[in-house]
Input
Amino acid sequence: MELTIIINNKDYTFSVDPSDSLLSILREHLSFTGTKNGCSQGHCGACTVVVNGKAVKSCITKAKKLENAEVLTIEGVSSNFTLDAIQEAFIEATAVQCGFCTPGYIMELYALLQADPDAEKEEIHKALEKHLCRCTGYQPIIDAALLAQEKIKNS
Ligand code: FES
Ligand code: FES
Output
């Protein structure tokens, strides 16, 4: 099938198999390698991107559902070499070690806090629970999420 998709505000049109995943489109067709492949099965959250305003696991999102979809990846979050508030918060809260899981967490929080900057702590925890991190420990990630929320609300 021919697919037109908007990624980080830029249009792309190319041929794909309808069963190709958004993750393979991003990483293999277009070299957006900031989106990570942890499990390929929808379990770890490392591949999370924002599609039409919602956080989705790109490894289980098929090309056939993406015609004219607007996709935001970690590469589109910062602008003019300025980090997004969530990226800053992850650094300040020391919530990054190897960084493999970090883009997924950031995109999850980006979708949540764009939709509702006043999201309750429980909602934030629930969103973070969709992700696995093998090295940082979860408390710094929770701290980063709350710090990001504070930054966004004060900006
Ligand atoms: S790579 Fe998609 S959820 Fe793990
Ligand atoms: S920082 Fe290494 S997996 Fe999360």
Observations:
- The chain has two domains: 2-76, 85-154.
- Helices lie at 22-29, 85-92, 102-115, 121-128, 138-154.
- The radius of gyration is 15 Å.
